[in-house]
């Protein structure tokens, strides 16, 4: 069967993800497509053994850093992946295109193109991820039924999204002309997509934003992009690319690894879904609020949170959060400045996470991309085997550390409101449910 290769020691895909939860999302999608995946946090050392994997996902924390830093780290990650022989590079950003007019999606994509894409070849831009209810129609990004600019993403603490037009958003960040391929060409199939890509490329475009309304569109795109050295997008198109590989082989033993033991959530995400998940959890289990303003005023909130944890961890899952409403976040940012508020919050939550592991926590959910970056770094985790998704984009990870720690990095808006109640001791699951931001 020529189109059904058996698993070989070839790592076909190398992903550079701009935040840690986004990396988990893409890694979970690949596992659901039957791939063996290793997720690294930061760039893996050349000496790090990464055998028997189909895909390597490198998690970076580059979504909100200055553009030059994001470029430098992303290039270093791409070089590390190429030196391990990966066949195709994928730059993963958020399905809601989280960025500012300065970047970082455009500058990073430009730099990757310059080094890894032959002159004249166009690069696809596909944030749409229908499994998460993010779709692109005529170049316009929707979150559920809302225009991106009218969704809760307009209140994001670091990258508020106030425009929904993807070509316009990207053009503000890149000097390469940005074109668009509508869903009509994608419905027409692989040859029509290839011909549109060639036409746009010959007209001088560097990028083609593609409409993506459903998984069928992603499968067509995946097949059309097999020989592209660089693809960019959300986790959706990764599923399309993986579908074209159709490996058959042994499931990754990490799938069978069940998280177990004392359980806690640490949340720094202020997204609408995370706030809803906290409200649902609070009705059943104890919660502790971390207030960045109180910390700045000198209160030892970390010690208080760990005292709370010591009393409550033996009784069931607990939750410690700085997550707050848009009004409360604005108040803290006005008082402390946006960067300082984030720095204080991320620093405290990561110290609390470290304390929780010290107290015996063995199943840890971290909510928020930036927050996950800070926590994983503080815990010194460098790699993890990716297990099954609890819900689309949200897999448990088995960390490769001395402590038997399972960690779940939850993107701000992913999951349903009861996720923090049902994610524990996650074992076998049925078919992928369709959930995400409304
Ligand atoms: N109460 C708060 N006030 C101000 N900023 C906060 C507060 N709580 C969290 N933050 C910051 O908001 C940002 C949320 O981003 P992130 O963790 O990526 O969440 P998401 O995945 O929802 O985008 C982080 O930098 C976090 O430190
Ligand atoms: O594409 C997505 O929606 C996610 O993979 C993602 O990147 C979310 O980022 P955060 O909301 O910052 O966790």
UniProtKB/TrEMBL annotation:
GO terms, molecular function: kinase activity
Domain Four-carbon acid sugar kinase N-terminal as annotated: residue spans: 13-240
Catalytic activity: 3-dehydro-D-erythronate + ATP = 3-dehydro-4-O-phospho-D-erythronate + ADP + H(+); 3-dehydro-L-erythronate + ATP = 3-dehydro-4-O-phospho-L-erythronate + ADP + H(+)
Protein name: 3-oxo-tetronate kinase
Location of the Four-carbon acid sugar kinase nucleotide binding domain: 264-420
Function: Catalyzes the ATP-dependent phosphorylation of 3-oxo-tetronate to 3-oxo-tetronate 4-phosphate.
Pfam families: NBD_C, SBD_N
Signal peptide location: none
Lineage, top ranks: Bacteria, Bacillati, Actinomycetota, Actinomycetes, Micrococcales
EC class name: transferase
Species name: Paenarthrobacter aromaticivorans
EC number of the protein: 2.7.1.217
Domain of life: Bacteria
Keyword entries, A-Z: Kinase, Transferase
């Amino acid at each position: 069967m020529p189109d059904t290769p058996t698993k070989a020691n070839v790592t076909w895909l190398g992903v550079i993800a701009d935040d840690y939860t986004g990396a988990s999302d893409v890694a979970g999608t690949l596992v659901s497509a039957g791939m063996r995946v290793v997720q690294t946090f930061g760039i893996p050392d050349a000496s790090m053994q990464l055998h028997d994997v189909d895909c390597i996902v490198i998690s970076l924390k580059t979504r909100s850093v200055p553009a030059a830093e994001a470029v430098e780290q992303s290039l270093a990650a791409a070089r590390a992946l190429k030196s391990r022989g990966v066949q195709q590079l994928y730059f993963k950003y958020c399905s809601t295109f989280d960025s500012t007019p300065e970047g970082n999606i455009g500058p990073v994509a430009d730099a990757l193109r310059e080094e890894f894409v032959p002159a004249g070849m166009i690069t696809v831009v596909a944030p749409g991820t229908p499994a998460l209810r993010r779709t692109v129609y005529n170049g316009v990004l929707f979150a559920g039924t809302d225009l991106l600019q009218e969704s809760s993403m307009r209140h994001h603490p670091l990258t508020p999204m106030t425009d929904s037009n993807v070509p316009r958003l990207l053009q503000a960040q890149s000097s390469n002309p940005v074109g668009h391929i509508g869903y009509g060409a994608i419905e027409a199939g692989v040859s029509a997509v290839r011909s549109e890509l060639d036409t746009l490329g010959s007209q001088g475009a560097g990028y083609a934003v593609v409409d993506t309304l459903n998984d069928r569109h992603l499968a067509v795109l995946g097949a059309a992009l097999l020989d592209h050295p660089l693809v960019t997008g959300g986790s959706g198109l990764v599923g399309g690319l993986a579908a074209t590989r159709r490996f058959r082989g042994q499931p990754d033993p990490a799938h069978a690894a069940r998280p177990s033991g004392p359980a806690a959530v640490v949340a720094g995400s202020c997204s609408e879904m995370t706030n809803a998940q906290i409200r649902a959890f609070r009705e059943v289990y104890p919660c502790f609020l971390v207030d960045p303003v109180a910390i700045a005023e000198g209160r030892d909130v970390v010690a208080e949170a760990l005292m709370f944890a010591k009393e409550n961890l033996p009784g069931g899952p607990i939750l410690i959060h700085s997550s707050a409403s848009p009004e409360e976040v604005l108040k803290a940012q006005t008082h402390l400045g946006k960067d300082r508020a984030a720095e204080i919050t991320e620093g405290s939550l990561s110290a609390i996470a470290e304390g929780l592991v010290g107290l015996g926590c063995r199943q840890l959910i971290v909510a928020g991309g930036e927050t996950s970056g800070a926590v994983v770094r503080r815990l010194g985790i460098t790699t993890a085997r990716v297990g099954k998704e609890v819900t689309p984009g949200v897999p448990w990870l088995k960390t490769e550390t001395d402590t038997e720690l399972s960690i779940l990095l939850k993107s701000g808006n992913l999951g349903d409101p009861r996720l923090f109640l049902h994610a524990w001791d996650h074992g076998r699951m049925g078919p992928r449910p369709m959930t995400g931001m409304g």
